[in-house]
Design a protein that fits this description.
This protein is α/β, with parallel strands linked by helices. Helices cover 29% and strands 25% of the residues. It contains eleven helices and 18 strands. Strands 1, 2, 8, 9, 10, 11, 17 and 18 form an eight-stranded mixed beta sheet that branches. Strands 5-6-4-13-14-15-12-16 form an eight-stranded mixed beta sheet. The protein binds flavin-adenine dinucleotide and pyrrole-2-carboxylate.
């Protein structure tokens, strides 16, 4: 009997809001699986889901040291888009956006996708040239992108400050109208429930402490819930990728830095796009609760602490006031931070590792939420077949040895 049986539904309606069925089981870990995924964020859960759905592999565990989606997945600012410069990235992020467009139906879980448009501002002539070049490159890849004049920006955001006297006057910008936001928790919960329905064991409160290897393969993982073996392993532990890689005996070209965000007190709906400025350095959107959601760049030091420094918040606030003097009396309600893993070219690593049965998916930096379904889709292919998916092949670890970097710092939206 499934947990969504008629009996459950009947009991739920009889009890009103009591007795909700659990969304996924809480199984005890088995001693061995076909595949173990470490990391119960969106990317790890999506990988497990597509492994089961597309490759019929169900004997899988997802090991999560905390709770599902409690990492970067549950702490990001929910922006999704596919307006990347290079062909390799454009195709990967566009796959993800296309999967997002059908994800609520696919998972039967409302991820609250809102394609309200993502605007990037330009504040100088050289930035306008760069915006125009990017828009052309993006369109050549079949992805929607348009140049905006200041008047068009004003009609989309009537409260924006377009004064030519401001320190960084707005000369124009670009928009991806299919970009927007999606509810981050729902993405994790939707994938978790769907993966669980396909028989995957989601094991929370299960931290991987050490990795046992011999003859070039991973044998098992020592965890806080015992020793767990598998034929194949996938590490998807954003923020701690280098820590896990070191336990497995290899190094990653990654810097781990704090990234912060904050929300204001709630306001009536007035801001129905996502806005970014890499020059004054802030991005903002309005949540369904009415809060303004704001963020900026990373703190410029390596750290595993879960908080950032006040100077970043201060700069973020002065940047928002540059764009929106009208918000000067708005109060900040709360702020938070989390660690992001950043590669030298601001692109992810997806693929094989020096250990033959270990695969890694990491380095999404400040921008991996938008990639969640696409990343899981291509990584599942990699683990199931042993070979990278053709869209993920350029993102292999050995690109750093070959010098084939995919520099996407400009598309990262927030500075690394
Ligand atoms: P996570 O959700 O972090 O999952 C990894 C999991 O691994 C964690 O749950 C962690 O607990 C677990 N783990 C770690 N070590 C172990 C271990 N030893 N054993 C077991 N489990 C372990 N991206 C966008 O596209 N748009 C945005 O607007 C955006 N805004 C952001 C704002 C902020 C403030 C931050 C911090 C990030 C933002 N990002 C954004 C980036 C995005 O959140 C991440 O790239 C993405 O969520 C990574 O997903 P994940 O599943 O790989 O990682
Ligand atoms: O990648 O779009 C993005 C993003 C916005 C804020 C943080 N990351």
């Amino acid at each position: 009997m499934t947990r969504y049986s008629a009996l459950n539904l009947f009991q739920k309606s009889r009890d009103g809001h009591k007795g909700w069925p659990e969304a996924w089981r809480k199984p005890a870990p088995k001693s061995s699986y076909d595949i173990v995924i470490v990391g119960g964020g969106g990317h790890g859960l999506a990988t497990a889901y597509y492994l089961a759905k597309n490759y019929g592999i169900n004997n899988i565990a997802v090991l999560e040291k905390g709770w599902i989606g409690g990492g970067n997945t549950g702490r990001n600012t929910t922006i999704i888009r596919s307006n990347y410069l290079w062909n390799e990235s454009a195709h990967l992020y566009e796959l993800s956006l296309k999967l997002y467009e059908k994800l609520s139906q696919e998972l039967n879980f409302n991820i609250m996708l809102s394609q309200r448009g993502v605007i990037n501002l330009a504040h100088s002539q050289s930035e306008m040239h760069e915006v125009t070049r990017r828009v052309s490159a993006i369109r050549l890849n079949g992805i929607d992108s348009e140049v905006l004049t200041p008047d068009q920006i004003k009609s989309l955001i009537p409260i924006i400050n377009l004064s030519s006297k401001s320190r960084y006057p707005i000369l124009g910008g670009s928009i991806q109208r299919r970009g927007g936001v999606a509810r981050h928790d729902a993405v994790a919960w939707g994938f978790a429930r769907a993966a669980d329905n396909l028989g995957i064991d989601i094991i929370e409160n299960c931290e991987v402490l050490s990795v046992s290897t011999s003859n070039g393969i991973v044998r098992s993982l020592e965890t806080t819930r015992g020793c767990i073996g598998a034929k194949k392993f996938g590490f998807v532990v954003s923020g701690h990728s280098s820590v896990l890689a070191e336990k497995a005996g290899f190094r990653l070209p990654i810097c781990s830095q704090p990234l912060q965000a904050l929300v204001s007190e709630p306001l009536k709906p007035f801001f129905d796009v996502v806005l970014m400025s890499g020059t004054v350095h802030v991005y903002l959107s309005q949540s369904d609760k009415g809060e303004l959601v704001l963020g900026a760049g990373t703190d410029k030091y390596n750290s595993y602490s879960q908080r950032g420094s006040l100077s970043v918040i201060e700069e973020m606030m002065s940047a928002s006031l540059e764009l929106f003097p009208i918000l000067s009396r708005l109060k900040v309600m709360r702020m938070w931070g989390r660690i992001v893993d950043i590669c030298p070219d601001a692109s992810p690593i997806i693929g094989n590792t020096p250990l033959r049965n270990l695969y890694i998916n990491c380095g999404w930096g400040t921008g991996g939420f938008k990639a969640t379904p696409g990343s899981g889709y291509v990584f599942a292919h990699n683990i199931a077949t042993g070979e990278p998916h053709n869209l993920a092949a350029p993102f292999s670890l050995d690109r750093f040895a070959k010098g084939k970097l995919i520099d996407e710092h400009g598309a990262a939206a927030v500075a690394h």
